[in-house]
Amino acid sequence: xxxxxxxxxxxxxxxxxxxxxxxxxxxxxxxxxxxxxxxxxxxxxxxxxxxxxxxxxxxxxxxxxxxxxxxxxxxxxxxxxxxxxxxxxxxxxxxxxxxxxxxxxxxxxxxxxxxxxxxxxxxxxxxxxxxxxxxxxxxxxxxxxxxxxxxxxxxxxx
Length: 158
Prior knowledge:
single chain; about 160 residues; alpha+beta
């Protein structure tokens, strides 16, 4: 499943071409809407919205540029992920292709972290992934911001 925005949809299409599986697109997986901040550079945001930016970085619930709160992003994205995960067969795998902010907030929600601590998960680089698994007490973060597949460990015996 994937966000219906262009870059995520294109990434999901590449994965689908390799796996032969279909992609379900969902607008709930779109990136955080940042209102007036949309399209601005970091420097422009600091120049025009310095106080709002500082409050956001302190962990205060801020509607950046009048846009969405991080908790609202998790409110729309996490239920979609859970709905699809619930439909998986035993030992099934769900791939979610979305955007850094949406993925971070969704992971934070699934792990049961307070919203203030979601920033501690760090960013997610383009074309990198996180792996979650279900444990005895809920979701567990197994990998985060991974960018390469594990290399096989080769011994020196022939």
